[in-house]
């Protein structure tokens, strides 16, 4: 399983997204559809990209009471995506409900990945506003362990945390890692970044790459550079 490059299609319309994917003539990269595109275009954009032959990570980060998440995941399971996610902060009962809901009648299901603490949350904000007194890295590992106990497949984390997540939750527990930049590229608003090659070295299973590919002069070449560095 795994070792793939997922392109974050952070566009706000179907036209822009399909025009971007058309550049890959013949190639079918794994794509991430987030809230922006999903809320703009609805489930039809997922069906359309799936019908074009792409694998899809539907990044909607569910977080609600267990019954609502279970039923919502059941609806999402019909979109036939390959990966979905939720917030580990929803507790193990919510994660278990999600797994039950997302399992299709034939027993298959997409990979289910947990968000631990968002990388936009600093340790200071987490402690002061959320009243979580532990250090943030301990909180992240604890949430990852909860996700593993609930039966989830992995977590979204910084590539820098991927090794520690594998040590805590097992080598088979997946790490899906944004925060990827080329050695000679712009960091933008990402702070703790690694190159695709470093992410491979630390043991990421999937890298999620947005602007280094979507904003590149030649997106296909940038994607292939990611594949060459990360998958080899
Ligand atoms: O453009 P860039 O490569 O920074 O895009 C990274 C993608 O990964 C974006 O879709 C962003 O929302 C997502 N992401 C992230 N950090 C997280 C979780 C998701 O950058 N902790």
Count of structural domains: 1
Mean pLDDT: 96
Would you tell me the structural class of the helices and strands? alpha/beta
Counting DSSP H or I runs of 4 or more residues, the number of helices is: 11
Radius of gyration: 17 Å
Number of strands: 8
Summarize the structure.
The protein has helices at residues 14-22, 35-41, 43-51, 66-77, 91-102, 123-129, 136-149, 162-169, 196-202, 211-214, 219-230, and strands spanning 4-8, 30-34, 56-62, 83-87, 111-115, 154-156, 174-177, 206-209.
Main traits of this protein?
8 strands, single chain, alpha/beta, 16% strand
Structural summary, described in words:
By secondary structure, the chain is α/β, with parallel strands linked by helices. It has a single domain (4-230), classed as Aldolase class I (TIM Barrel, Alpha-Beta Barrel). The protein has helices spanning 14-22, 35-41, 43-51, 66-77, 91-102, 123-129, 136-149, 162-169, 196-202, 211-214, 219-230; strands at residues 4-8, 30-34, 56-62, 83-87, 111-115, 154-156, 174-177, 206-209. An eight-stranded parallel β-barrel has the order 1-2-3-4-5-6-7-8, surrounded by six helices. Strand 6 (154-156), helix 8 and strand 7 form a beta-alpha-beta unit. It is globular and about 45 Å long. Residues 8, 10, 34, 118-119, 156, 178-180, 188, 190, 208-212 line the site of cytidine-5'-monophosphate. Cytidine-5'-monophosphate (C5P) binds next to strand 8 and helix 10.
């Amino acid at each position: 399983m795994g070792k793939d490059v997922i392109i974050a299609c952070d566009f706000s319309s179907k036209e822009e997204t399909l025009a971007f994917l058309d550049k890959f003539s013949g190639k079918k990269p794994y794509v991430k559809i987030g809230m922006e595109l999903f809320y703009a275009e609805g489930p039809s954009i997922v069906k359309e990209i799936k019908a074009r032959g792409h694998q899809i990570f539907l990044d909607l980060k569910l977080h609600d009471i267990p019954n609502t998440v279970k039923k919502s995941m059941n609806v999402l399971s019909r979109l036939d995506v390959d990966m979905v996610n939720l917030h580990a902060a929803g507790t193990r009962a919510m994660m278990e409900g999600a797994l039950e809901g997302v399992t299709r009648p034939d027993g298959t299901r997409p990979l289910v990945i947990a968000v631990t603490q968002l990388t936009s949350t600093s340790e200071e904000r987490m402690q002061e506003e959320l009243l979580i007194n532990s250090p943030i890295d301990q909180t992240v590992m604890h949430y990852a362990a909860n996700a593993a106990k609930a039966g989830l497949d992995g977590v979204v984390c910084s590539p820098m945390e991927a090794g520690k997540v594998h040590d805590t939750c097992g080598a088979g527990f997946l790490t899906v890692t944004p925060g990827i930049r080329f050695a000679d590229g712009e960091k933008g608003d990402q702070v703790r970044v690694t190159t695709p090659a470093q992410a491979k070295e630390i043991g990421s299973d999937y890298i999620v790459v947005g602007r280094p590919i979507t904003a590149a002069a030649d997106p296909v070449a940038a994607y292939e550079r990611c594949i060459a560095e990360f998958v080899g």
